[in-house]
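Tokens as discussed.
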């Protein structure tokens, strides 16, 4: 299985469409199912003064995750915006900002993605949020699903993780791109230790990077 650079796919998705349809209303399941208790990771509705879920925080500045596909460096939260996590990945040129450490910042749609991820957190097993992302000439359906908690072993060691699926599906003529990504997020430090990616449908030739897993994780001096 090969995975696509999420950042590389997004501009193609946004700019490649040439028609726009009326979107379906956003769908989600904001409530916890009856009888399902909060997880040990702290899946409560409590929020910070800034409005983002208390369950989440960006990976600490100086976190280094060496992987089978290169080094991922984390620089903490963006100044004055704790929902954007600053990092550098092998597939990027320079630093990027990722909403809740899951989706790369893009000026066209970040507000809509942010709204979806605010509904997605706090996590509990089986929680899913489906959200329409609209930009001029294009519509995309993003679906975020918390598959559950999993103890995963990679070359860097064994980690308690949240397994999260992210599905992306273009809607309308000219936007036939569809892909799914699975990421294993450390349940307390919120960096990925493993990722896989599958392109299900595409029109354009796009650059890809291989699936990866962490080979070493350590804390370096903050930058």
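Sequence:
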């Amino acid at each position: 299985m090969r995975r696509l650079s999420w950042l590389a796919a997004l501009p193609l998705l946004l700019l490649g469409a040439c028609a726009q349809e009326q979107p379906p209303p956003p769908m989600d399941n904001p409530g916890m199912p009856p009888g399902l208790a909060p997880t040990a990771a702290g899946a409560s509705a409590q929020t910070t003064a800034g409005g983002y879920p208390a369950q989440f925080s960006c990976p600490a500045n100086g976190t280094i995750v060496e992987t089978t596909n290169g080094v991922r460096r984390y620089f903490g939260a963006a100044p004055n915006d704790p929902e954007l996590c600053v990092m550098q990945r092998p597939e990027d040129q320079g630093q990027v900002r990722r909403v809740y450490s899951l989706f790369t910042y893009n000026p066209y749609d970040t507000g809509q993605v942010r709204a979806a991820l605010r509904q997605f957190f706090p996590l509990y097993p089986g929680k899913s949020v489906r959200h329409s992302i609209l930009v001029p000439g294009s519509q995309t359906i993003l679906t975020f699903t918390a598959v559950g908690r999993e103890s995963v072993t990679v070359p860097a060691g064994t980690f308690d993780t949240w397994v999260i699926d992210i599905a992306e599906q273009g809607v309308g003529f000219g936007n036939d791109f569809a892909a799914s990504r699975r990421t294993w997020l450390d349940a307390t430090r919120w960096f990925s230790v493993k990722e896989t990616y599958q392109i299900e449908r595409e029109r354009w030739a796009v650059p890809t990077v291989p699936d990866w897993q962490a080979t070493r994780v350590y804390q370096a001096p903050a930058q």
